[in-house]
Every structure is written in structure tokens, then in C-alpha cells.
Amino acid sequence: MRFPCRTRYLRQFLHFQQVLLFVFSHNGIEVPAHPLSGLNTDAQKARAIMFKAIPGGHPTSVIGVIDMTEQNGTVTIIGNLTGLTPGLHGFHAHEFGDLGNGCLAAGAHYNPFAAPHGGPNDPPLRRHVGDLGNILTPRKGPTTFVIQDFLITFTGPRGIVGRSFVVHEQRDDLGRGGDAGSLSTGNSGRRVACGVIGYVMEGIV
């Protein structure tokens, strides 16, 4: 059985939780010390430290953070990334918590119900669980975004904790491209960043 999150990446994730503010300061990334402040403290919290993909290798350069809360059937995703090219980028939750081989080891979009590729506003059986649409990078400044999704969860059959977020080079066509690639990946191109999703430890945020 292949578990979604391999042990070395879980250890790596917990280490980066502890040195998070130092890493961001060192890389010039402006992220609020409490990115989830103002949200209900009873909500479950998770986080992915995002890395720039290295073709054929394991990533080492942090480009930002994605924070999540789950409450009342909704997952709120708050992202702050740097270093992406201007324009739209496909953004998905992928099968495995493995960032190797240029983020290819993260596997395919998380799709436990064998649905066609779609967009976040499509019905549950017309999209992958991991289909989260596109994020927009402006001409200047960081890539910031807030997404609310009603299909993904932290645990269970639709759970994404222990899996990975992946940012793609190009725009996701949300399954409307009229070809086989559109119905599997949205023709969003190569993987440019990825990060393992894990729970936020008490006292970290």
C-alpha cells in the first residue's frame, strides 16, 4: 500500500513549520505571522509549505505558504506565493505527499471517484476532488489568493491532508478544451511548484 505522505516528507514538513518565519524572512517573502487570524479558532487548520520544482530532483527553495481551515463543510484556502510568471496557473491537490522528480512524484490530480477533469464549480462527479481551478499571478507582486471549496475535506474519502498541492505552468482549461488532455489535466502544463499538506501543530500558528 502506498501512503499519501511519505515519512521523510512528514519530517521535513514539521521541521519547516518550526523555522517558518526564519525561512520567509531569509527569502524576502512577506507572509502574515498569523495568516489564519480572524477565522474561527475551532476550525481545523492545515498548511503546505510550497517549493519551486526542480526537474528530476527534490525541491529546496521555499516560495511561499498555503494555509487552510475546515469548518462547517467548507475548506478555505489562503495562499501567498512568489516567483511565478504573470498570468493564470492551474492549481490542484495531487495524490501523494511526495515532492520528488520535479513534483511528478506527487502523482495525478486527487480523483478518488474516477471523475473527468473539471473546475471547482462543477458538480462532484464532473470534477476531480483535487480540481481547484486557477490562481492569478499579477505583473508585479506576490501571488495571493483565497479559495473556498465544498468538495475537498481534510480526512475521509475526499481528504487532502497528507497529499500535495501543485501549481502548474499554464492556465487550466477546466475540462472545456475538447481533447483528451483537457479531460485529464486541463492542459495546464508542467509542474512549477509543490508542497505537502499537513496539519498545523498547536502553537505554530
Automatic annotation (TrEMBL):
- GO molecular function ontology, one term from the record: superoxide dismutase activity
What keywords would UniProt list here? Antioxidant, Copper, Disulfide bond, Metal-binding, Oxidoreductase, Zinc
- Catalysed reaction per UniProt? 2 superoxide + 2 H(+) = H2O2 + O2
Membrane spanning segments where? none
A Pfam family that the UniProt record links to this protein: Sod_Cu
Q: What class of enzyme is it?
A: oxidoreductase
InterPro entries from the UniProt entry: SOD-like_Cu/Zn_dom_sf, SOD_Cu/Zn_/chaperone, SOD_Cu/Zn_BS, SOD_Cu_Zn_dom
- Enzyme Commission number(s): 1.15.1.1
The free-text note explaining how the cofactor binds reads: Binds 1 zinc ion per subunit. Binds 1 copper ion per subunit.
- The protein's required cofactors: Zn(2+); Cu cation
Q: What does this protein do?
A: Destroys radicals which are normally produced within the cells and which are toxic to biological systems.
PANTHER family given in the database record: SUPEROXIDE DISMUTASE CU-ZN -RELATED (PTHR10003)
Q: Which family does it belong to?
A: Belongs to the Cu-Zn superoxide dismutase family.
Q: What is the protein name stated in its UniProt record?
A: Superoxide dismutase [Cu-Zn]
- In its UniProt entry, the species of origin is given as Angiostrongylus costaricensis
